[in-house]
Amino acid sequence: MSFPQRRRIGIVGFGHLGQYLVQTILEKQREFELAFVWNRTKSYLTGKVDPSLQLDDLSNFQDRHPDLVVEVAHPSITAEFGKLFVRHCDYMGLKVTMSKHPSCLKLVGELQNKNEQVKEHAVILYQGSVRDLCLKAPNNVNTMAAAAMAGHTLGFDHTQACLISDPSLTDYHVVEVEVQGPIQPNGKKFFIHTVRKNPAPVGAVTGTATYTSFLSSMLVIWLWTHTARNWGLIPVVGRAQIAHCVTLCLIPNQVLY
Asked: How far apart are CA 190 and CA 11, in angstroms?
């Protein structure tokens, strides 16, 4: 069997996920080639990554000629090096930013404490992976979790979330979605930035338009189940089982648990 030219992959970050990716790339050398591994604490790479593959200065990553850079370290790396990455290789991303009035956020732990300190000006409560936010804001991440599931090649670990507490948002919940694709030979890239404003009074965790959305989703699922059952595609199931299916579809973050 013939394989296309191997893609050179650079890994930024060597935590549990970074180690897994490095190991997988090394095991699939007919398809991939490890271009470099960078970690903020370089000593952590000793004995685990061949010295020839260790990158000392991330700003010199282009010297290793990667086709794709995968950042599994911290969002601050994307903020600092993201623009440089996309000039030289593929660096695909999906980011969802949600802004709500402080009273509309139902949080736990440190995020709750941080939100209670918000008085006059908007404050970024969280920036990072959707997965890490799910347990910290389980009532406010449905949109982000749905985006992570839709962007299945990125998933919960690589879809970026930003949660903002904004006292000025007394009438709406605001969700911004940014999607960027690989850079093209002419230097341009695909980019989408959408903004959704869902009417919501102060103190409401759920925006008013969301109720109709939930109902529409429930009806679509019911119609699909009814049609599939009539066509013999699925066995007859009880109402409780159908309700469970609806719950998983409407509340995607529950899938994590």
From this structure: 23
